[in-house]
Write a structure and sequence with these properties.
By secondary structure, the protein is mostly helical. 53% of the residues lie in helices and 4% in strands. It has one domain (3-110). The chain has helices at 3-17, 45-54, 66-77, 83-87, 94-110, and strands at residues 25-26, 42-43.
């Protein structure tokens, strides 16, 4: 997967599978679970990108961070210092997160 494809897949994950704030991932009942847990059903923006990038490699600690960097550059340009604080902003929605990821993916495709 290219970084743009990772961002498109992450957008689909948060919009159609589940999105969360305040932690990397949550289980079905809303409890905290590690982002790579098979019990994870909702992910923050960063965890969605990282878990998809990590799935491309056999070693879960080694992943392509270009998608993550592109998203970080975008949210920094909007005045946020981290993806997590942007994701967790009051009033933020899953649709807004997914739309931003898709916008960044398109910027990568057009670069």
């Amino acid at each position: 997967m290219t970084p743009a494809e990772i961002l498109h897949a992450a957008a689909d994950r948060v919009q159609f599978e589940g999105w969360t704030q305040g932690t990397a991932a949550r289980g079905q009942g809303g409890e905290y679970v590690p982002m790579l847990s098979p019990n994870a059903t909702r992910w923050c923006a960063l965890a969605a990108v990282r878990t998809l990038a990590m799935s491309l490699y056999s070693d879960s600690q080694d992943h392509d961070i270009r998608a993550e960097i592109a998203l970080l550059d975008h949210v920094r340009a909007k005045g946020w210092n981290q993806i997590a604080t942007w994701n967790d902003a009051p009033g933020r929605t899953a649709g807004e997160v997914a739309d931003t990821m898709r916008r960044v993916a398109k910027e990568l495709e057009n670069a």
